[in-house]
Amino acid sequence: LITYTNIPYLIPTGVCNLVHNVALHQKATQSSENSQLGAAGHAVDGKRDASFQRGSCTHTEEESDPWWRVDLENEYTIAAVTVTNRDEHENMLDGAEIWIGNSIDTNNIKNRCAVISHIPKGRTFYFSCSPAKGRYVTVLLRGSKKVLSLCEVEVFVPNYERPLPNVALKGEATQSSTLSGAAASKAIDGRRNSYYSDWFCSHTAEGQTDPWWRLDLRQTFVIVSIKVTNRGDCCAERLDGAEIRVGNSLQNNGNDNPRCATISHIRAGKTSTYQCDGGSMEGRFVNVIIPGKSKTLTLCEVEVYVAPAGKSL
Asked: What is d(CA 20, CA 37) in angstroms, rounded to the nearest whole number?
């Protein structure tokens, strides 16, 4: 059983910023009910068990535009919503919309938090809501002959409104080689200064095969997004084709971990954001590698933002 009640944000200052799953055990309703086994309340019972047969998931009838809703009883500033998909029929949630507001209206686009493109079976995905304010959280699946099934919906409200923490600041960086004065740690110093000549960027030796940079976060996190700042004074194209990899293995220096994203191009001095696996990729190590011969890797800042840490009970 995994719950997210009273979970600390991991923030660089070390101050504990509590967040609460305010959906837990609140009143939930849905457009229809397939059976008692698929009751709406199963999505707010605090259990991420992805089995419908064990009575842990909701289930509507097959119908047009099925919906599920939780009443939080009060208006909250909502930082994020997580959704757990069932362990079978994983494509049923594709295209579902998450709505937040003080009414049950699902027509005002300003109240839409996110659209679920796909959640693999049995997985929990995290959706940042930027933040949004509201009493009701609705999951709506538009279309005819649709069935809506959810295994858990968690709604997170911070005690003190702060952004997600950049845990890269407390990590340890290394790289395949180092040009004098351009250590790997320069990319996690908290500054997006993009001029290499100002000594704020990392830099490998020039003309390497498969140069890489690695960040050790010191523990495993659920990674929501990664931001990369490219060099601004020249050579922006050098980062084209670089791969961001996330995982817990140090095999091949961590470069064999699952791929989060491929950097097609970041303009000189600009910062691009990459979401890994729908904002729920887990890992301790974050690698940036440029595959190929005669390559040079320069990074001016890498930021890693993580979801609230859970407790296994």
From this structure: 27
